[in-house]
């Protein structure tokens, strides 16, 4: 006969069995959920969003640089126009002084002409008196004139003086006429010079007006480009905030340290379907840049080509450790400062390692890469992965 303990233990065992079943089911269910690459899909979407934002930021940066270049060029033109205006104003000031001097000279000539004319008129009055005396003398006989004189000697002196005055006045009148004619010619020349100077002044004033209008238009266009630059900078700032939000989300998902399989399209690498390629059995072949497919350098070369439309051919010198020297020789910048859409090069190991910089946040860079064995690739070489790393791990090649 079963004991009371046996009867008591059966329900307990059933309960325990049910709990076990639930635990196993929960474990299976949890396993099935964790096997769904939700994180990878989310990371892929985040990366696509990040690429879109990065592209817009790059486009806006190009626009900002173009606007700034135009604004700077217009500012340079405005400065040049301002200098031309200053020169024109200086020339006008000089002309004004010349006109004032020439006007004073002209006015002096006019006064001299008036003075000469007065002397001529005065001389004409005296000549008129002499002529009147001649007429009077013609009406009086010589005997009567001698008789009316105090003495014969006085008569002779009066006749001689009258004749001398007549001759002298005639010479003076002729000299004054010549002087007046000379002054009139000087006055005409002064008037012509004044007219020429005034014409120059008007021409300079018209040119200055045109330059002032051009300056105003140039400054206005400069202001427009600065306004466009300001608007684009504001928009870029908003995009950079979005970029940081995406980066923070990526950092949150991967604790800003671990590796992930990331983008489902594996960076759109055209050889991804053939990876991992054999590296030692002779079946591996090179891409169009002479670099073995599914290796870090081939992927980095592809990303440069995909992003910028070109990738230099370095004669098949494909080791990542050779890239900085190759880049410098080709005229590209190699820097310790990370930049999105650049190639990061690590000198670790005998061949080095190349990565593509997806984004930068503080002193951390988010990279995509091939041929880095890690947890995300199940420790298999020749596969795609993404991760956050410290910026000091690489030097960076800018291909633009």
Keywords:
400 residues; alpha+beta; Helix Hairpins; endopeptidase fold (from Nostoc punctiforme); 2 domains; 9% strand; disordered N terminus
Tell me about this structure.
With 400 residues, this protein is of the alpha+beta class. The protein folds into two domains: 65-238, Helix Hairpins (Orthogonal Bundle); 257-400, endopeptidase fold (from Nostoc punctiforme) (Alpha-Beta Complex), CATH 3.90.1720. The protein contains six helices and seven strands; from the N terminus they run ααααβααββββββ. It has helices at 4-35, 38-139, 142-148, 152-254, 296-308, 323-329, and strands spanning 259-260, 333-335, 343-346, 353-361, 364-370, 384-390, 395-398. It has a seven-stranded antiparallel β-sheet. α2 (38-139) packs antiparallel against α4. The two termini are 90 Å apart. Residues 1-41 have low confidence and may be disordered.
The H-and-E topology, N to C, reads as: HHHHEHHEEEEEE
The tally of structural domains comes to: 2
User: So how many helices?
Assistant: 6
Largest sheet: 7 strands, antiparallel
Number of strands: 7
CATH architecture of the largest domain: Orthogonal Bundle
Query: What is the percentage of strand-forming residues?
Result: 5-15%
What is the rounded distance between the termini?
A: 90 Å
- What helical percentage do the residues reach? 55-70%
C-alpha Rg (nearest Å): 53 Å
Nutshell version of this structure?
It is built from 6 helices and 7 strands.
Topology at a glance:
Elements: H1 4-35, H2 38-139, H3 142-148, H4 152-254, E1 259-260, H5 296-308, H6 323-329, E2 333-335, E3 343-346, E4 353-361, E5 364-370, E6 384-390, E7 395-398
Antiparallel strand pairs: 1-6, 2-7, 3-4, 3-7, 4-5, 5-6
Helix pairs in contact: 2-4
